[in-house]
Each structure stands twice: as structure tokens, then as C-alpha cells.
Amino acid sequence: MRHADITVQDTIEADRFILRPCRKSDAGLIAMYAADDRVSRGTRAMPHPLPPGAVEAMIERASQPDRTEDVWVIDGSAHGHAEALGLISLERMDRNQSEIFYWIAPAFWNTGFATEAVRTLIAANPHRAERIFAEAFQDNPGSARVLTNCGFDYLGDAEAFSVARGATVPTWTYTLKIEK
Q1: Which H or E run includes 70?
Q2: Residue 7 pLDDT grade (very low, low, confident, very high; cuts 50, 70, 90)
């Protein structure tokens, strides 16, 4: 939603949690989860070990009106779950397209939270994207399953640099055309 010169990021309701904008108070819990190398190795941009202030800087970037990426905390506190289960984001691309990124804290793996978060964000389509792209590292078939379970189509193999791994890693690339 846009109000004058400020882009407001909405809270989005799911069955077992809400997707809400990051708050400064989220930094400790997010940093604790992100310090787990299983989380950082599953992302492109998260370093391991996590430098001091990195999460606070991400939260600050996510709150800027001129941001290109919207980041939501997957917050289960209203449903008896943890206040932060992980993060999900949409990066704006050109031509009415976005790219989705997500991670779930290891304590909540294999619970369906990632699939529910991706489905919820797609249904809300806050960027009004016509197409959403995603990728999964080839050594993370669970993340690939999330994407195919959410209707993404496989596009092909590629590579992406992982900061935590300090290496280029083989990926599977996916796309989802949003039906209007």
C-alpha cells in the first residue's frame, strides 16, 4: 500500500501465524536463528558467522520507504507458536515481477510453516506481481518441495553465490505465473 511518499507494508493473516513487518525487537530472536549455519547456508546473502549488527541493519533496510525488498516475520505468537518462526520476503524486479525468499528456524522444520507462508504471500500478492521467481539450492530438496507444492514450475538449473558458504552453489530455478 502506498501513502504519499511512504510505502506501508501490510500484515497478512495465515491460518497458523501472521506475516508482519520486522520490528527492532525481533533482532535478538532472528540473530539467534540466523547464527545457525544450517539457516545461513540455505540463503544467498546471510553470512556465517553473523557479524554484530547485521540483523539490526537488515531490519533498518526493511523499514526504509525506498526499499526494493519487503521482509515479513512469520509470527506465530497469536496461535501459541513462537513470535518468530522465520522470515519471508519479496524482492521487486522489473516488468511486474518479484522474487521470493524464505527461511524457517530449524526448530520448526517439517511443520508446513514454509509452505503456508509462501502460499499466503502468493495469495496476498502485495507487489501485484504477474510472475514470481524463486530458487532453491540443489542440496536443499525440502525448499524445492515447498515451491512445487505452492504451484511453482521448474525453469532450470543455475548457480548462485552463497555468502555463508563462500562459494557458488548449484540451484534449481522456479517461476509462478499469477492468475488475475
Answers
A1: strand 69-75
A2: low
Region for 14 from its dihedrals, namely left if φ exceeds 0, alpha if ψ lies in -120 to 50, beta otherwise = beta
Q: CB within 8 A of 129, min separation 6: which ones? A: 90, 96, 97, 98, 178
State residue 179's pLDDT score.
85
Average pLDDT (4-21) is 84
Pinpoint the alpha helices (H) of 9-135: 27-34, 37-40, 54-62, 113-124
- How remote is the C-alpha of 63 from its chain's centroid? 15
Encode 128-167: b = buried (16+ Cβ within 10 Å), e = exposed. ebeebbbbbbeebeebbebbeebebeeeeeeeeebebbee
Q: State the cell numbers at 11.
A: 500484515
- Residue that wins the pLDDT comparison between 179 and 148: 148
Name the grid cell of 124.
Answer: 496476498
- The total number of residues shown for the chain amounts to 180
- What's the rounded mean pLDDT across residues 47-66? 94
Residue linked to cell 528456524: 105
